[in-house]
Amino acid sequence: MFEKVLIANRGEIALRIIAACRDLGVKTVAVYSTADRDSLHVTHADEAICIGGAESSRSYLNIPAIISAAEIADADAIHPGYGFLAEDARFAEICRDCGIRFIGPNPDSIRLMGDKALARKAASDAGIPVLPGSPEPLHASSQARAVADEIGFPVILKASMGGGGRGMRIVRDPHDLESAFGQARSEAGAAFSNTDIYLEKYVERPRHIEFQVLGDEHGNVISLGERECSIQRRHQKLLEEAPANAFDADTREHIGQILADALQAIGYSNAGTVEFLMDDERKLYFIELNARIQVEHPVTEAVTGIDLVRSQLLLAAGEPLGSVVPDAVEIRGHAIECRVNAEDPETFLPSAGKIERFAAPGGPGIRVDSAAYSGWTVQPHYDSLVAKVTAHAGTRGAAIRRMRRALSMCVLEGVKTSIPLHQRILEDPRFVAGAYDTRFIEELEL
Ligand code: MV4
Q1: CATH of the domain at 382
Q2: What pLDDT score was predicted for residue 166?
Q3: pTM for this structure?
């Protein structure tokens, strides 16, 4: 195992990684920006090094500063968390070239998955179901026309270097295809310095279902089941659950086996999340693979009993999968996570400011991941996540009641938060019935 791990992140995920390291007896190095001097990841790491100014580009995205910190502290590995440098293939490569283990997939996997058109082709070639669409990136609108006429409208144009909802354009009327293609291309060029576009059949009212996978560095991959993440607003998830609503064990098994075989063929290792859209016939189609630990990993940890961040560390250190996870992974009960953001409930804009009072809920089946404390200031420079509250219980109904109890016992004063919105979601009959899709929030707001 590693002697010392540098955590190239902040907030709750930095604390989560420190916890996993300490459980394994691994020393930790925090890095922080000048805005984060009073942050808990600085308090709790064994060492802490200031790497630059408040703006992310000067600190948490500053590769030379982070590598220098790792060399000064003599860290043998870097955990990138999520966001920031987590899916930067170049950073993973630089770590490797400097003799520092990058705790995540290899640079080639990260690069492949970063190009959504190539990822889609690789997934399809490896036997993962994809939507009808273009087999390669499109370079001219005539190519888009040929594919769209073949598969039928509506279609969606997506930027290859986009993802997570950025750089997409729905085309319902065949007459709009050429102009939409031109706009998608110029937007992609401006946003990603890459004009590659691909096309897919557009799925109306999809559900967002994602599978957690883990792979070792010896060619073994397993699936740890799915999460349902359809409750989101402007591509920001608000609440996630595991397992997905009314998802049968046979489908879980079937897709899980396809993913294990496919990712083994691709040479994928460490943690990953395979995103699918589920249509109204409950068919699943691959859309993206996120080559990182995700915000919502605690719901999978709750229902599988597997510590995913500990697993990432062990796998990156070369441990075989068989010694990291049990032979038979069972899904036990139901878990729900609410992402508590410091935001204005009217405008959804981040509400930075001082937290005057914070007391996290607890009790049976409740887990809180947070770097907040009374007197801490929510920084305007970073994302507005203040706490993740995860409820685990024997049934979905019991998990919903447990989450309502936890949110009602969460004291969080001084900033506006998304808790009232979460409470509305948890009372909504469609949510309670599990009968929702990705349009749930826009319809809740009507
Ligand atoms: C789609 C789609 C419908 N059809 N692709 C948005 C985020 C990105 N990961 C993929 N997204 C979508 N891709 C096809 N072919 C609808 C969405 C989509 C969506 C997907 C998941 C969760 C929320 C969403 C909200 C709006 C659109």
Answers
A1: 3.30.470.20
A2: 80
A3: 0.98
pLDDT of residue 246: 87
- Binding-site residues, ligand 1, Cβ < 6 A: 131, 156, 163-165, 200-203, 206, 208, 232, 235, 275, 277, 287-288, 438
> Separation of 243 CA from ligand 1 center, angstroms?
20
Give the distance (Å) from ligand 1 centre to CA of residue 175.
Answer: 22
Number of other residues whose CB lies within 10 A of the CB of residue 121? 18
Q: Please tell me the predicted confidence (pLDDT) of residue 344.
A: 87
pLDDT of amino acid 350: 85
Count of residues in the chain:
446
CA dist., res. 351 & res. 419, Å (int): 13
Nearest residue CA, atom 11 of ligand 1?
165
DSSP 203: P
Q: Give the residue numbers marked as catalytic.
A: 292
Whether the Cβ atoms of residue 390 and residue 298 lie closer than 8 Å to each other:
yes
Count of structural domains, the chain: 3
Provide the domain limits for residue 176: 132-201
pLDDT at residue 432 tops 90: yes
What percentage of the chain reaches a pLDDT higher than 90? 95
> Which ligand 1 atom sits nearest the alpha carbon of residue 439?
25
